[in-house]
What does this fold into?
Amino acid sequence: MASSPPAIPNRIVREMATPSGPRAPRADGHGSPHRMNLNECPYPPSPVAVRAMRAACETVNRYPDPSWGALVAAVSARTGIAASRIVVGNGSDELIVNAGRVALEPGDEVVVPVPSFPGYNKCAALFGARVVAVPVRDDGAVDVDAMLAATGPRTRLVFAATPNNPTGAMLPAADVARLAAAVPSSALLVIDEAYHEFAIHAGGDEHLPALARRDGPWASFRTLSKAYGLAGIRVGYCLAGSDDLAQAFQKVRAPFNVNAVAQAGALAAWDDLDHVHGILDATRVERERIAAGLRELGCEPFPSVANFVTARTPRAAAEVVAGLETRGVLISRLMAPGFEQYIRVTVGLPEDTDAVLDGLADLLGRR
It folds into this structure.
């Protein structure tokens, strides 16, 4: 008797683990919980952006600009990257997957830091590539020497995040320059800068000049989800090292990938830097409060410059996460081997900081 064909024809997709996804917020009888698990901005976007999105809703019977012309022109003017080398994505998540489409074939290798953004591993799996995982440094930053040592003849894609999610540590320009110089020209180097604005606010370096000296292909991925408070409309952008690479990203994307409301909101938010700076200032205050409070409770936080703090706790992270959820506080934990006692806390409003520290004090017996 002939066997039935598989329900999912693609073997790679069949064998991939089913993602659990982030936990959704839930009501707890006293309103919404303290949502500190998704690295979201707790503040609403610029009022100018909200008005622009409302106005854009009146014309959504028409398709959006397929080449995002106004937004690309604005990004080009500020970054100095030619418009022909800028590709906008449905969040930087889309760009990460498309990096695999551009660079990978089955059997290739992808060098990634660990712990870091799990989308890198999914990108590799989708295209039948092998992940070469490189532990981060003790301070949570990408270990450039180890990353370079891990590259080989099959390396076709290298991801390096700065600041790194989930540790929050950033790289200086000298380290990015070493990656740019030493990653083989046969590999695409992606510098994931989802938290770029937070790094600059903390005194970090602008990395485009160092990347511009690279002989091989490179791209910087940035987003409006974090510092601009626009996670819900999904707008990220790729700054590509050449017209050819940008064209490759154009080839593999879906048409009309960023909707008209999102484009209008992103463009309006892009110009309201006072609003962004206010978010960055407020985030720094609460980030420092969280880190100091964690230390007082006997935890060991990484030195983060982003909108989250990751720390080693005296108890298993799964127990801490579950215990806080019963108190209406949502945080996350690190899933990488060796980090079973590490939690990640998104920076929120002052009352969120109070709630997470009070809950941890109860759970850790520090009252």
Observations:
- Residues 27-31 have pLDDT under 50 and may be disordered.
